[in-house]
Amino acid sequence: MVTVFGLGFVGLTTALGFAHLGYGVYGVDVDEERKEKLRKGELPFLEPGMEEALQKHLDQNFHVTEDIPSAIAKSDCIFYCVGTPYGKDGSADLSYLFSAIDTTLEAIRDGKFRVMVTKSTIPPSTTAEKILPYVERRKKPFQQVGIANNPEFLREGHCWEDFLGADRIVLGVSEERSRKVLTDLYRPMGIPIKCVTPTTGEFIKYLSNTLLATMVSYSNEMAQLADTIGDIQTAEAFRILHMDKRWGGCTMTSYVYPGCGYGGYCLPKDTNALLAQARAKGSELPILREVIATNDRRAETVAKNIVKGRPQDTAIGILGLSFKPGSDDVRDTPAARILHALQDMGYKNLCAYDPEAMEEFAWHYPDLRLRFMGSAEEVYQAADVLAIVTAWEEFRSVKDLGSKPVADCRYML
Ligand SMILES: NC(=O)c1ccc[n+]([C@@H]2O[C@H](COP(=O)([O-])OP(=O)(O)OC[C@H]3O[C@@H](n4cnc5c(N)ncnc54)[C@H](O)[C@@H]3O)[C@@H](O)[C@H]2O)c1
Fold it and tell me: Which tens digits make up the pLDDT trace of 254-311?
């Protein structure tokens, strides 16, 4: 039996994934609206393949519960999949995690051994330096708990397939009892399990995300240089770069490609969190610092490329608001940064269309004044200049609509 705290992209996938494997799973969240939707069998976000899984397992071996003590009483593992957003100085805000840990410790009423597993992304050494001492201090003498982490590598838009078909399962675990419980839990998946120290487990996740961010910023810096030099077919140059057999046609090449800068929930916060942590430990990371700075500058560069010095009353039509196609997630989306940059430059005549993310965008960015349109065609009619900001496939045909200028900020046409 498993309890999962946090039923967002990672937590809901984890909960349904374990239910799919035949375990009994209790899901806990603090967001009433989210739980209400889930109880009706509706996903709170766009995620292919997950609604079917939810409807199949809901009230069978997956329960969205309010009765935390009885969920914990039956569980051998408790997974924490709560958010770890930007805190002060870019550092990871661990308050949701510690709140869920408090709830767990308050709920444990017996001496059964349980493993408390952090799946949320937490900076290296958090388990050893913060979670372990915290739990040691707060737990009651009869409570038997192991502490571990288990970083998650899924991609939004592919959560379900990435969880069930993960490349590897990383367990950051320092004692034998927890290692055994967790390896037994995951073994039926038939995926390689790598047991490392808790700090190594945490570090691997940041190795991954900071490298992805570095590839994006490198690509954007090179694209900017190409613009400065001129007469360079930037998209073609990158595609030819990808033909190198050392890439082996891998999907990683999608990060070695210019665009609007990295966005979404993870890369912006994780790059900042690692930089903040390095500084706190007295270490400077000049490459990572510049990766972040390049990304921070990208929105303004893209905004300038869109308007190309046109007058401030130019009607600008933005195509795409989500941080990537196939998703309605707008957290830290480049579209918001670009729209803010346009507004700051004095451009107020803004309209936009996204096939999935307009409602989410309006809710997250009430300060942005723009008109939401019903289609790319409507944007075309209303705007003097268009900009493709999210690479939704349907935007490939925008050039067939007529001869108005289109800024191809995703290098996809
Ligand atoms: N989204 C991704 O692609 C992805 C991939 C890998 C790792 N991660 C990491 O996983 C973690 C979760 O990310 P996410 O995208 O799933 O976040 P999310 O915002 O979609 O979900 C987090 C959920 O936790 C809930 N929550 C907050 N405090 C709680 C508490 N005390 N008790 C119970 N529930 C609580 C929230 O209401 C929310 O539903 C983060 O650390 C993130 O960095 C995310």
Answer: 999 999 999 999 999 999 999 999 999 999 999 999 999 999 999 999 999 999 999 9
164 plus 277 within the same structural domain: no
Cα–Cα distance for residue pair 34/374, rounded to 1 Å: 26
What tokens appear for 118 in the block? 């952090």
**Measured CA distances, 393 to 81, 125, 319, 354, 410 (Å):** 31, 41, 11, 11, 11
For ligand 1, say whether the CB of 9 is within 6 Å of any of its atoms. Answer: yes
- What is the phi/psi pair of residue 100, to 5°? -65, -35
Dump pLDDT digits (tens) for 381-391: 999 999 999 99
Residue range of the domain that includes 180: 2-196
| H or E segment to which residue 184 belongs | helix 176-186
The predicted-structure confidence for 355-381, as pLDDT tens digits, reads as follows 999 999 999 999 999 999 999 999 999
Q: For ligand 1, say whether the CB of 96 is within 6 Å of any of its atoms.
A: yes
Whether residue 266 lies in the annotated active site? yes
* CATH code: domain of residue 83: 3.40.50.720
Tell me which of 4, 46, 81 to substitute to probe ligand 1's pocket, judged by most ligand atoms within 8 Å of the beta carbon: 81
| Block residue for tokens 């090179």 | 222
Task: Compute CA 303 distance to the chain's CA centroid, rounded to the nearest angstrom.
Answer: 24
Q: What phi and psi, each to the nearest 5 degrees, are found at residue 177?
A: -60, -45
Domain boundary among 174, 196, 218: 196
The model carries a pTM of 0.96
Between CA 333 and CA 154 the distance in angstroms is: 18
Question: Is 228 part of any domain?
Answer: no
The token pair at 257 is 């490609």
**Residue 84 near ligand 1, beta carbon < 6 Å:** yes
Residue 102 in domain: yes
Given 77, 81, 266, 351, which residue is catalytic?
A: 266
pLDDT value at residue 236: 98
d(CA 102, CA 134): 10
Contact predicate 80/120, CB 8 Å? yes
The reply to whether 279 and 342 lie within a common domain is yes
**CA–CA separation, 53 vs 51, rounded Å?**
5
Q: Where are the beta strands (DSSP E) in 71-180?
A: 77-80, 113-118, 144-149, 169-173
Q: Which residue has the tokens 């967002």?
A: 8
The angle formed by the CA atoms of residues 230, 235 and 241, to the nearest 5 degrees, is 105
Last residue of a domain, one of 142, 177, 196: 196
